[in-house]
Structures are given as C-alpha cells and as structure tokens.
Structures
1.
Amino acid sequence: MNTATGIHNSTGAINTAVNITMLNNYFRLFDASRTDKRAMQDLLSLFTLDAEIVLNGNSHTGFEGFMKAFYEYNQDIKHMWDAWVLQPDGSYQTNWAVCGQAADGTVYAKVGKDIARVNDEGQIMYLENVQADENAFSKYSSYE
C-alpha cells in the first residue's frame, strides 16, 4: 500500500497515470480555451465547482472566475511543462514556463510551478500556481 495516498500499488499506479494524463490535458485545454468554446467547457469540467485556486498565496473558490479574469487581461498564451510528479502528500507538482500576449499587446514570459490535488472522481479540487515572480497575479487578486 502507498502510505502517502492510502491506495494499493496496482490501483494507485493506474490512478496516478490517469490523473497525470488529466493534468497534462489541463495545460493543453487552457491554451486552447481562448478560441475554442469546447476546449473551455472541457477545461472547466476538469475542476470541481468549488475547487480552491491559490494565486500569489490568495485563495479563491472556483476555476471559471479565474479563467474569465485571465482572458480579460490576456490575448494568447502557450504553456510548456515538465512531467507531473506525485508527491508524498498525494498532490501532484510540475514546473512550467509560459509565454503570452497581454490584452494591451505586450508579450511576456514567466516560470513557476503548479501544485494540484485531485479528488477520487479525477477532478482537480485544489490548484496552486506558484510563480517565480511573486507579484505576477496581483491583478487577479480580487476576481470572482
């Protein structure tokens, strides 16, 4: 038995692989969601309705509000990421890099890590975005 997750190894390995595939889809769908309504629907379906989203240490409930705020400030985005790794506490973590174009036309590049927790149904119930620039999400501090 995996003591970190309380799951027997054979089932845990399958769940881990399924969760990692879903988390990879999170980044792919995030990038596509700007112009593809189906991608946005699929992206939102990866999250519980009451998912805790943590940006710059500030906790918010629900992912849809963040996405609406994000695309108010950004025209386009492209993520690259390392493999998601199951942590001893049962969460998943990856390092990422992103390039994008803000709504005002300026371009940017950022790096950081994501920490995700997935429920038994395979949905993201917690996502923490930790950016190398601790003020990177300051404009999203009050989205709802």
Note: The chain has a mean pLDDT of 88.
2.
Amino acid sequence: MIESTFLWLFIVVFMVHDFEEIITVEHWAEKRKSLLESKWAKRIWSFWNIRSNEFAKRDVVIFLFVSMLVLLRVEFTSVPGVEMGFQVFLWIVLIHNLVHLIQTCVTRTYTPGLYTAIILVTPYTLFLLINL
C-alpha cells in the first residue's frame, strides 16, 4: 500500500504543471495567433487564448478539486468507491497529458504545460497507479 505522503505530493506535482500553464499561456497565445488555419487548431486556440489571471482562476478550482480527492483517498480509503474513484481520476490525468501531446502535434509547436506533463506529471501518475 502506498504511503499518504506520496498521495499528498501529487497535489504539488500537479500544481507545478498548472504553474507552467499559468506562466506560459499568455505569452504563448500572443505569439501563436497564426494557428487558426484548421478546425482543430481553432478549438485548441479557444482554450489557450486567455490571460494568465483567467487561467489561474481555473486552476484554483482544479487545486481545490484535486486536494479534495486526495483528502478523500487518504482519510476514507475504507469507504466503498473511494479507491476506484481516485484511480479513475488518475487515468483522467493521463488522458489530460495525452491531450497536451496531441495539441502539440496538431499545432506543431509547444503548448503550455507540455514539459511538466511529460517530465513530471505522467511519470508520477503512473507511479501512483502502479503502487495503489
């Protein structure tokens, strides 16, 4: 069984990823306005074409949600469904990271959050899934 410290650390790992997005999104959007050539690029653009403070507001909600899930997993493991719910959440995180890769392939350029998704969040999420 995995120690609760590793679960709590997931919040830090995930927020480092969100910080990369917050720090890079506005500058990235200003330089990538030319990406509107395809339908998929327009969809990606509609997500990324925001100011950093707006992105940070989204991330506060994400931070609270992730914190709540980790708290439930640490404190209420014996409650039916908590373990499975947390594992489903971790799979969603992996899909989110895959979306970063797809966006990068579609736009043929870096997208905010790509580096930490590949280097930090995906390995840590896999570590948790393997050890849960």
Note: The chain has a mean pLDDT of 85.
3.
Amino acid sequence: MSNLSAPSSRRSRQQPDPHVVRTVRQVALAGLALVLVWPAARGYSQWIGWLPLWLVGMPLVAWWALYRFRLPAAWRGGNGAGKRRRGPQARRARRPLRPRWGQAA
C-alpha cells in the first residue's frame, strides 16, 4: 500500500527525498549567485515581476516547504519567552456600583 494511508503523525516524521532537496538547494543557491553577480537579475521583468523573488525567494520557500515549514531549532524559542502561562485567566477588579443619575430627594 502507498504512504497516503499512513497516519499524519507518521508522515510528518518522514524526511524529504534527498534528490529533490539537493535539486531545490542547487536552484536556490544558483539564483542567489545570479542575483549577487549579475545586476540585471536584481531588476523587474514585465512578464514575471521582481526577479529576486523568483530567483531566490521562491526556491528558498520551496526548500523550506520540503521540511514541512518547520522552524530551525535556534528560532523555536528555547529560552521559554514564548511559553503560555498556566492557570486561570486574569480578571478585572470589580468597582463598586454607583448610580448613573443623582437620586431625587
């Protein structure tokens, strides 16, 4: 049977195909070299738009997508600054009720 029937937790642990990763990495690095070396590659094309987006940005996003958009370990917040607080939600202090209009005598 194919991998399509595997549970999602099992599929998420699989590594991408090394041949595809190598190809996407080479395309991203070639696009980066092209943008850095050739000034015309930093411009705008009438047909496809801003060239650095297509030469560098999109291959880098494809490379990242091969790893299912996981963040690098250094960016995951290992210092605990982004952790949620446990416990009840904070409540506002109650103010004493007071009448809106002055009482008639």
Note: Helices lie at 8-12, 18-37, 51-66.
